Amino acid sequence: METPTALSPDIWERTPPEAQAYIRALESCLSALEARVQAFQAENRALQEQGKQTSRNSSRPPSSDPPHSLRPRRPRSGRHRGGQPGHPGQTRPLLPVEEVDEVVVLKPDQCSGCHAPLLGDDPTPFRHQVIERPPIQPVVTAYQWPQLVCPDCGESTRAPWPQGVPSGTYGPRVHATVALCTGSYRLSKRTTQQAMEDLFDVSMSVGTMSQSEKTTTAVFAEPVEEARDYVQEQSVAHLDETSWRQDGKRAWLWVAVTSWVTVCVVRMLRGGQVARELLGEGLTGMLVTDCSSAYNWYPASASDVCMVASGARGDVEALDVSLLYDATAPRGGAALGSRESV
């Protein structure tokens, strides 16, 4: 029988069997508690590391940062706020006279001192231009589509519907303006409804705006497919995703960026199938990602990895690492390059 390390063999031999069994039970319980303490300590360290992660030292999006995340303060430069001495001023250039819509000459009739009549012209008068938006009134076109009955055979006939004339109530410019407000400008449908009425005197219901968005999306389906094809043919593509809200549920906004074209899609998944959808299966160039597992399907070995660190934040902070894959580079080749993000 094995003797506990804390007791000598002589003492252990003189210990009653009941006491020996009790001591061994205590030692077994102590070993289990030590293992649990070590597991808790490892979990605590992992949670502390996770709590210190922000968008500046990891691949997390800025939207996931806590409300009061600490950001490094820049040292004071000692300069005053605003434009610095020697800084060139920025003013709006005046349009040439031939490009303005109306010229109003404010020419005096008499001298402000002696009231004598004034004649002649000023070759270099002071110029002041006022920019004003024109009054906007919606253009309403009424189409009358009469149906005539043939006197010979009795057939009812209407003229063919003109090409390009919408069958709905609103024209393409109205649909485009609604999409611009709710899409690019991120306005709510209620705010867009108010803006359409205030700016353009066009009244629309919220339900009509939802249908207008679907109509505009269908119109842009073909150009979006052309943009995807362009992205898939490029030699370098950047791919990333961030959290998004779609119909009250958590979704993901995916973006594929090239030199000239950027394609965005919203999907409920964060897996590699969405990356394949954006890039296609035939991409053979370089792919820049943030080291997410969604891009592990792309063919690349450790020799094709170019790590881009956003900067060390201390031993307890993680490095934001990006991977630059090159499927055309030979395996075992040199690194493709590196960049330090400031």
Structural features, described:
- The chain is of the alpha+beta class and 342 residues long.
- Among the domains are: 1-36; 169-219; 222-326, no CATH class.
- 29% of the residues lie in helices and 13% in strands.
- The protein has seven helices and eight strands.
- It has helices at residues 9-14, 17-51, 172-184, 189-200, 206-219, 221-232, 272-279; strands at residues 147-149, 156-158, 236-246, 249-257, 262-267, 286-289, 308-309, 321-326.
- The longest helix has 35 residues, at 17-51.
- It is extended.
Outline the fold blueprint.
Blueprint: H1 9-14, H2 17-51, E1 147-149, E2 156-158, H3 172-184, H4 189-200, H5 206-219, H6 221-232, E3 236-246, E4 249-257, E5 262-267, H7 272-279, E6 286-289, E7 308-309, E8 321-326
Parallel strand pairs: 3-6
Antiparallel strand pairs: 1-2, 3-4, 4-5, 6-8, 7-8
Helix pairs in contact: 3-5
What structural keywords apply?
single chain, 342 residues, alpha+beta, six-stranded mixed sheet, two-stranded antiparallel sheet, 7 helices, 8 strands, extended, disordered C terminus
